[in-house]
Amino acid sequence: MITIDELTVELDGEAAVVRAIDALRLTIERGETFALVGESGCGKSMTALALMRLLPENGRITAGRIAVGDEDVLELPEAAMRHVRGGRVGMIFQE
């Protein structure tokens, strides 16, 4: 199961900080296929990148929790995170 609780992501913009995701809550059950759809610029890619801890250099998670099973993704060392990416969690992009 993937649980996202109160996730907030901010990006440093040229003139100001942009809140790309604001207090997102989401649960995806084990074996469930999940499609995230929405308008351009609504935060779909940022949500996926945050889940995989692959945000751009100017981005950061400022609040919330992301769990895969009972592991807190935000607390895992990078070596353990590499096993999560592709092994336990995967994404298929539109392109």
General shape: globular
Provide the number of structural domains.
1
Mean pLDDT: 89
DSSP helical segment count:
2
Task: Flag low-confidence runs.
Answer: none
Biggest pleated sheet: 4 strands, antiparallel
- The share of residues in extended strands comes to 35-45%
The strand order across the widest sheet is 2-1-3-4
Share of helical residues: 10-25%
How would you classify the helix and strand content by structural class?
A: alpha+beta
How does this model look, in words?
The chain is of the alpha+beta class and 95 residues long. It is built from two helices and four strands. It has helices spanning 44-51, 78-84; strands at 2-12, 17-28, 59-68, 71-72. The radius of gyration is 13 Å and the shape is globular. The model has no long low-confidence stretch (mean pLDDT 89).
List the helices and strands and how they pair.
Layout: E1 2-12, E2 17-28, H1 44-51, E3 59-68, E4 71-72, H2 78-84
Antiparallel strand pairs: 1-2, 1-3, 3-4
Please give a quick description of this structure:
This protein has 95 residues and is an alpha+beta fold. It has one domain. It is 16% helix and 37% strand.
Tags for this model:
alpha+beta; 95 residues; 4-stranded antiparallel sheet; 2 helices
